[in-house]
Amino acid sequence: MLIDFRFKALDPIRSNVNWLLRPLEYVMMMPRNMYEAASEYFTSRGTLDKENQEMKVRQAELSLLANQSEFLLIENQNLRQLIDLQNQVPFKTLSVEILFNPPNPISQRIVINRGSADGLKQGSPIANDSGILGQVVRLYNHSAEVSLLEDRDFAVPVQVARNGLRAAVFGAGRGNPLELRYLPVASDLEVGDVLITSGIDGVYPPGFAVAVISRIERNADKNSSNVFCVPIAPVNRYRQALALLYDPQWDANASTATNKPGSPIINAPGRRQTRARGMQ
Amino acid sequence: MIDFQSGYILRPVNPVFIYFSLLCALLLNLLPIGNYSWVPDWLIICIVFWNIHQHRFIGVGTAFFLGLLMDVHNSDLLGLHAFSYSLVAYLAISWHRRIIVLNVLTQAMHLLPIFLLVSLFPVITHWLLSGEIYWWALTGAIQAIIEAVLWPVATQILLSPQRRPIDVDHNRPL
User: Fold this and answer.
1) Residue spans per domain, chain B
2) If we measure between CA atoms, which residue out of A220, A212, A168, A167 comes closest to residue A191?
């Protein structure tokens, strides 16, 4: 146990046992899947009609929004190029299915049906249509374990959508509200503020909704405030989700002949460029 | 072997039935019920049962291997269940002479501490490793109580093949 905790040295054993165990898990998921399939099969025509209608309206709204956002995206890219900021990197999505959540009193995880063979990486964010769900923490060939937002000490760098204030939101264990930590009393926060991913970590793409502030306790004597939030995405509800394959291309450049401290900076596209300020 | 509940001599156990019941318990544990703390751990009931009744077939080694499987399934630290299962298997084997002569309900009372040990072992380990106790997970005690309640049922089911009469005479049922 200590070896696994400190050194993570037993991963080969784990993946082999997992290879043995996974077929059994699939077999045992069959009753539930059959039950769900049956209940879907017997949904009435009226329900389907209503759902279809709602879907059409929603799709119309979304396609309108998508056109608009494409325009804004191009405009934003152009503006960013004009002022030499780093370009936003597009990311790919991979639809994943949530298989089950393992019974574990300590942590709050789910197992999904995609793994390293599908291009998933350690640390890939998992989201659904409303916001971030969690992050891949353990990778197998054809499945992966995802730590959910509520998991203890699970941290996401966020910023407040209203004013751009950056912070980090932490999970506080199952059933407890998320916490915004390390914020002074005077910080400009209100109940109902939406927290979106800030993207400064290079793991989460920026602009995804994470949580909404639900309660603020300011204690002036300690110059700290306890801010509690609830996750936006329904963490334990749906079976489908999206994995975001995102590589911000921020890796430090290797020290080559053309890239040494002191040598002129090459303007590689997509890299952050520092502009000389002051006296030139 | 004597059935201490009824006083009759039991039929010899079929090893295939032992392994079949362990496999069934493992499969029940893999059911995607969700992350609820009250869901009983079928496997540990089965392991402890066979440790007490047939410790020549099922020992610490089997418990360790099955615990390893549960570790991977539960995405726990590797060895958490393996260690607690083998510890409990050892305890059950060393107590089996004392426990087996008791009434079934008294047996369940005696086994409650064993089940509590398994249920609370992850919390204790987490406490030792990271220094913070996770109060919410102490609801695992409910699981242990449910397992103890299920013990008479398990005894009834798992001993039933051995309780069959040897030669059935349909003409004279007594």
Assistant:
1) 15-162
2) A212
B36 to chain A, closest Cα gap in Å: 6
Q: Work out the number of other CB atoms within 10 angstroms of the CB of residue B50.
A: 26
Query: Domain B15-162 belongs to what topology?
Result: Arp2/3 complex 21 kDa subunit ARPC3 (1.10.1760)
Q: pLDDT averaged over chain A?
A: 78
The shortest CB-CB distance from A4 to any of B39, B79, B140 is to B79
Of B26, B83, B137, the CB nearest to A105: B137
Give CA separation, A228 vs A157, A195, A214, B135, B174, in Å. Answer: 15, 12, 6, 19, 71
First to last CA, chain A: 59
State residue B90's pLDDT score: 93
ipTM: 0.74
Who among A17, A101, A102 is closest to B68 (CB)?
A17
* Per-residue pLDDT, A277: 47
CA torsion angle for B106, B1, B7, B164 (degrees, to 10)? 100
B137 at A interface, C-beta within 8 A: yes
Quote the distance between the C-alpha of residue B118 and its chain's center: 10
**Least-confidence region, from A63-67, A216-220, A227-231:** A216-220
Chain A residues within an 8 Å CB radius of B33 = 103
CATH topology of domain A91-248: Thrombin, subunit H (2.40.10)
Surface of B (48-107) touching A: CB under 8 A: 68-69, 71-80, 83
Q: Does the reported pTM lie above 0.80? A: no
Whether the Cβ atoms of residue A138 and residue A109 lie closer than 8 Å to each other = no
B65: nearest CA partner in chain A: A17
- Say if the Cβ atoms of B30 and A25 lie within 8 Å: yes
Q: Which of B166, B143, B162 is closest to B53 using CA atoms?
A: B162
